[in-house]
Design goal:
The protein is an alpha/beta fold. It is built from 20 helices and 13 strands. Helix 8 links the parallel strand 4 and strand 5. The two termini are 40 Å apart.
Length: 491
């Protein structure tokens, strides 16, 4: 790097222009230096602009990142309109998350751009897409929002080469990256990440996916102004005690978040004849050891003084995958959240799964804090009537702010739920009389085909799939991404 710094610009440009990208060699030093040096940034951009993959793009099946770079380099007047970027690097056979938007245009800005990269394009491989995105962050003006979703055929191991994005390249600070200087919302769905991501002064919302791997010793000095934290975790990983230690360190590092959403996704599991997940045996754990999951409660307790909204939700799982929720139910621990206003949890988080009754020796006033104003219970059964029946007598004194209770019924339990909801039980009338509105919402848990395929292959059971709805297809995605570039060209 120091040798490159001593070279004249003309020679650097010649070197950068002749540098060939291939599978066995990382991006050139010029591209790395472009992130922290204004001088090298211009040279790297000029080299990128002159590269055959952009200059002669019609000869190559170029990826969308390069196509977008070419567009904004040709139309620099459009740069000021770009405020948010959604980057997708994936294998073409893996669908994007449902509901992912590729473009939303407002009067003052282009607020979302979708970029797709396939690993089998000639000339550019997956290894270099993150590096190109790093360069793109310098070409663009400071962004308000950046979301990165990367999924490969081999998993997140391939992302270790993404040094420019995920901090494996050693430079002083990610805050030096021009495109991140004013970032307010950051979403990282997979790959290793460095604590520098969380030290951007303007950062307010952080979303970390289940594939993210925090680098050790990187939590110190995290920006304490982050007010909203969304964490996606995996059930099997969550069962390991070390996971709770990491989770606690991360939550404590954020200092004072007001909103925490813990979204738990279930990994494919096989079950024995007794209904116990075999994966627990692989982890060296038995169902009787779930009591150690109290560590999750301790982790949540590290932010109890500031938390105003808490969600603990299990997604894309069958009914057996939520059994562990009642075994880590925080019970009286939630009463130590003095600022908690909104709470969203599964019924298993509050009631015992075997008897569907309240946790032993604990009343609702010992389970829920008196500061609650909104309570959302997911997958309720008829036993929820007895639980909520404790509210009316103590509401004025213990729950003075509680005005809304929502029961989110899953489609699988919709029939039984509607039966007890429509039975004119006195609890519904008593809640209404004290001014608490009870609403019902139907939730359809979409199931992933990949999950069931693996589950069936493990235990030989032929699980029936529900209709997952319309999935985004590759041809639709390609048209959507091309539409972004066409839109930019038309401006």
């Amino acid at each position: 790097m120091t040798i490159l710094e001593d070279l004249p610009d003309e020679l650097l440009l010649k070197i950068a222009g002749s540098t060939r990208w291939n599978e066995d060699r990382p991006m050139s030093g010029v591209c790395n230096l472009a992130l922290v040096s204004r001088r090298f940034r211009n040279i790297a951009q000029e080299s990128l602009y002159r590269s055959p993959y952009i200059a002669d793009s019609y000869k190559y099946r170029q990826c969308r990142v390069l196509q977008f770079l070419r567009t904004i380099l040709d139309r620099r007047d459009l740069l000021a309109k770009v405020k948010e970027v959604f980057v997708v690097v994936r294998h073409r056979e893996v669908p994007l998350p449902k509901g992912a938007d590729f473009m939303a245009v407002k009067e003052e800005c282009i607020c979302l751009l979708g970029l797709k990269a396939d690993i089998d394009f000639e000339g550019i491989r997956l290894n270099y897409e993150p590096a190109l995105v790093g360069l793109m962050l310098h070409i663009l003006p400071p962004l308000d929002e950046l979301e990165i979703y990367i999924k490969t055929r081999k998993g997140v191991v391939d992302l270790d080469v993404a040094g420019l994005l995920f901090g494996t390249y050693r430079f002083k600070s990610l805050t030096a990256v021009r495109g991140l200087s004013r970032l307010r919302k950051l979403s990282l769905w997979s790959g290793p990440f460095h604590g520098d991501w969380l030290r951007i002064p303007s950062l307010r919302k952080v979303k970390l996916g289940s594939g993210c791997r925090p680098m050790s010793g990187t939590y110190q000095g995290i920006n304490s102004t982050v007010s909203e934290v969304v964490l996606h975790v995996n059930t099997q990983v969550l069962l390991l005690p070390s996971s709770y230690t990491q989770l606690g360190e991360l939550l404590e590092a954020f200092s004072c978040p007001e909103t925490l959403s813990l979204s738990v996704d279930n990994a494919p599991m096989a079950y024995d004849v007794n209904g116990h997940p075999r994966s627990l045996e692989i982890l060296g754990t038995s169902p009787g050891m779930f009591g150690d999951c109290q560590l999750l409660v301790d982790a949540l307790g590290k932010v109890s003084h500031s938390l105003r909204q808490l969600q603990v939700v299990a997604e894309h799982v069958d009914w057996r995958a939520t059994e562990w929720l009642d075994l880590i139910a925080p019970a009286s621990s939630l009463t130590h959240f003095p600022q908690l206003k909104n709470l969203t949890v599964h019924q298993e988080f509050l009631l015992d799964r075997f008897t569907w009754t309240e946790l032993p020796y604990l009343s609702i006033s010992e389970i829920l804090p008196g500061s609650l104003a909104y309570l959302d219970i997911i997958n309720p059964t008829a036993s929820i009537r007895g639980f909520l029946g404790q509210v009316p007598p103590i509401a004025p004194s213990h729950f003075p702010s509680l005005k809304n209770i929502q029961l989110s019924a899953d489609d699988d339990r919709g029939c039984s739920f509607l039966w007890f909801w429509r039975d004119n039980h006195p609890v519904w009338k008593s809640l209404e009389e004290i001014g608490i509105l009870v609403a019902v919402r139907h939730v359809s848990r979409l199931r992933e085909k990949q999950y069931y395929d693996q589950l069936n292959s493990q235990d030989g059971t032929n699980y029936q799939l529900e209709d997952p709805g319309k999935e985004l297809k590759d041809d639709f995605q390609d048209k959507a991404v091309i539409g972004v570039v066409d839109f930019l060209n038309a401006l």
